[in-house]
Amino acid sequence: MPKSSWSLDVQYRVRNLLKELLSYVLSYREDLQLQYKWEDEDSRPKLIVKTQRRSIQNLAHFEQQSHFYEAINRLKDLNIFEDRRFHTRGKDYWHFALRLWSKDQQINLREFDKEWQSRKTDKSKKLEYKKQPKIEKNNVIDDDSQSVFSRADNIHQRSFAIGTEIDTSSIIYLDLDSILQNNIGVFGNSGTGKTFLTKLLLSGLIHQQASVNLIFDLHSEYGRETALRNQKFNTAKGLRNLFPNEVETYVTDTESVLCRSVLDVQEFYLSYDQIEVEDIKLVSHELGISEDNLDNANILYTEFGKSWITQLLNMTNDEIQMFCQEKRGNKDSIMALQRKLLRLDSLKNMRTVVLHNYINQILRSLEAGKNVVVEFSPQSDMLCYMLLANMICRRIHSYYVKKTEKFWQTKNQKDAPRRLVITIEDAHHLLNSNTVRNTIFHTLIRQSWKFYITLFIVERYPSRIDKEVMSELGTRITGFLNHEDINAIFTDVASNQNLRSMMSKLNSSQQALIFGYGITTPVVLQTRSYDAKFYDEISNRCSST
Fold first, then answer.
1. What residue stretches are annotated with the Helicase HerA central domain (predicted)?
2. How far apart, in whole angstroms, are the C-alpha atoms of residue 34 and residue 47?
């Protein structure tokens, strides 16, 4: 009897069968002759499948019939597969159960990888380790076989090389499809390289077309070319420079951009008639607006419609009193609301009337597969950042909910929403405990996985992020931090003593600990340099495709 093989090639094929089958089931597809249902048994659910062998082969992209039987045998060896056929010989009809760990695809894939690894002998592990590509001490990836993107012998189909393990110098690949199934956090003190690490990850997502991206760029660091720290004449390219046909940049401070003679951007103006009462509610904490103020805002909106803010700001005290007598509003509350909304006048991109709706334009770009950077100048009022981020994301959430519900009804892959990643810089402004429950991000952080949205937060002070938000981050990548912020990183993380020990290995720059989805085990790595060699890699691959 032939010996069971636990090689990487076999692992890739068996894992891909499991991945594609779960994807088919969880997407409610019906385009193959394949019947399925869930059967719960204690804490280990069973997936029951009835189908033809060729349907499984097509789904898993097996090139040979032998690969099908090989996969079935390995699943049996792992005690996952249960044959429920009455006749087991000479039949192409298959009826079986898979005893899984969860009804979540990524949890199953992660547990599968652990089980597979446990079946390998020490000898086979050493042989595989010797076959792994090594790099020089300067951590430069030289040839195309050691690409920053997918490797032929990597078990993940859509992967990205984020750096090298500091102990072994082996290249560390992230499974981009897995990492996007949950929210992501990148953390680190100033100067630890988190901005460049974020640019690396976003570049991988854009190039591999793993997602469409919306980036709220608070410090003008992601869209366009920026100066390097402590280097007068060297610059780092922005995403617009690397992907000129795939990235659009909108700026909220056109005067600042024009002063720098930058023309390759689009302006972004906002008008009062585009702001709804619900938008004001989302930034009520920043404006100091009470529930009573919001109740009276609804009275104004009912009377004046879209022009409610313009009408309010132009009303005299006598006109407010007359309005309250006729519409049963509260004079003191409306006058207070008027004073508080006057802050909107200070925003550089605010206009009384704008003929063009830039938020709708951004939504259309995202729907068409374009990546969008919304840039705020360093002099921007924080209110501008919070208002626009909430307004845009509230409309995105509404659109994605409707799009997803349609997909659930039709079960047609053409109706599936594009996977969207929303990157928030200095996230504590929007996600701190005092603010987050008033914002759209409280809804997104808890529901994003249902609606094809991933939040990607970038933060210097994780201790300022709400604990509930931290608990919703499936993947965390952290550079050097102080003690208080380290404690925040491990919110709701079981057995974190080992992770704390791994963090002690970090130097202050360009090293990070990564754990969670997208990677099999936690690892401390030297992050890939965001430099001319990386730019060339992107350019060469873009031209070849």
1. 162-396
2. 12
Coil, helix or strand for 103?
Answer: coil
In the chain, count of helices (H) and strands (E)?
23, 20
What DSSP line would sit under 381-406, residue for residue? -HHHHHHHHHHHHHHHHHHHHHHHHH
Q: In this predicted model, which residue has the larger pLDDT, 212 or 118?
A: 212
Instruction: Look at phi and psi of residue 90 and say left if phi exceeds 0, alpha if psi is from -120 to 50, else beta.
Output: left
Q: In Å, how far are 32, 91, 290, 315 from 108, measured between CA atoms?
A: 23, 29, 46, 61
- How many residues are present in the chain? 545
473 contacts 497 by C-beta, under 8 angstroms: no
SS3 breakdown of the chain: % helix, strand, coil, rounded to 5? 45, 20, 35
Q: Read off the pTM.
A: 0.73
Element (H, E) at 217: strand 212-217
Please report, in angstroms and rounded to a whole number, the separation of the first and last CA atoms in the chain.
45
Degrees (nearest 5) of the Cα angle 419, 441, 282? 130
Q: Is 41 helix (H, G, I), strand (E, B) or coil?
A: coil
Residue 173's DSSP bridge partners are 161
Torsion angle defined by CA atoms of residues 496, 502, 503 and 508, in that order, rounded to the nearest 10 degrees: -170
What does the pLDDT look like over 493-531, one tens digit per residue?
766 788 888 888 887 678 999 998 888 788 999 998 888
Asked if 454 and 419 touch (Cβ cutoff 8 Å), the reply is: yes
